[in-house]
Amino acid sequence: MPATTAPATFSSLRPAPAGRSVEILDQTRLPFAKAWIPLARRDDAAHAIATMQTRGAPLIGAVAAFGLALAMAEDASDAALTASAALLAATRPTAVNLAWALDRLEALLHPLPPAARAEAAWAEAWAIAHEDAAQCAAIGAHGAARLLAEISGIGGIDAPSGNPIGTRTLAQAGSVGTATAAPRPLNIMTHCNAGWLATVDHGTALAPIYRLHADGVPVHVWVSETRPRNQGLLTAWELAERGVPYTVIADNAAGLLMMQGQVDAVIVGADRIAANGDVANKVGTYLKALAARAHGVPFFVAAPVSTLDFACPAGSAIPIEERAGDELRQVPGRDAADRPATVRQLPAERPVANPAFDVTPAALVTALITERGVCPASDAGLAALYPERASAQPR
Ligand SMILES: CSC[C@@H](O)[C@@H](O)C(=O)COP(=O)(O)O
Asked: Which family does it belong to (predicted)?
């Protein structure tokens, strides 16, 4: 077996001790309890994705790949391959990583004889996991360099063209000069959870923050709560585990903090980036981008290649997941005795709308940060970084 497909223990995903299966961290129990759950069958993986036991665009792509590998161990016929891929693809609609991973496995498996499919699918699922971890590490390096360039007022560099992108420097409320001489930490705002919990490892938006922290740059993170699912609490838990200073804020506090000059940059992940650079991400992202533009705060989006949808011309074509209204009507947490509890805020019959994502127009995005480098959020910017993908799409 090639080294790239060897099982490994990542932060959010690991091989199960017995048999050909994997375990995931149950994110519905975090941040209160850290519990690993086994995925031994296709339907375990589908259930985990649909119920958000596992979540975050790159991670659900990897888990879907393992789900299809588990399906092949159950039934590797042509009909089962097509049906299992369709079943897994239907679990969540917005993050394109899910379809990307399933398409990749289907393209590999359909030409193979059924008897060879389980082995090949298992190896490919691990290859996807390894690649995602490596890509997120690279996003961390590129993103950290870009943020440091902003601090020192250099502006970023558009890899691989070398053209400068953007000239804005960070908000100077604390007279930030250079990273090491900063009189106060670099204040970065994020939304939702785009850390190692949302990927196979390292994270997307949080990877540059982890990298800066590891390099000794003083960083403080404004973590927005991210109602209704409160993924910001997952971000806070992750940052606490790694010793990165942070403060949780209500989603609605973000604009005030930017107005007051308390935010040097915003960085978020993405669930799908259209060919023109429009970005679908957790609902509330768009409002942060608007506030950032109004106050001259750089707004970055970090994502790996599996999040890029070159077949989708613009954000208006991205499907937006509508989730159950009870996610809004109820709040899970702990009671006074520290037992798991759910509080109902609204009766079940009260009308609510619960779109899980929104779309930030490319014009509001300072730059995209991918495993290949930093580029403008535009057709041309993405085509410069991914010429083979851009030219492969029908126009
Ligand atoms: C690295 S993940 C980026 C996005 O997937 C993340 O910000 C997000 O929107 C996750 O949504 P979720 O509904 O929690 O799966």
From this structure: Belongs to the EIF-2B alpha/beta/delta subunits family. MtnA subfamily.
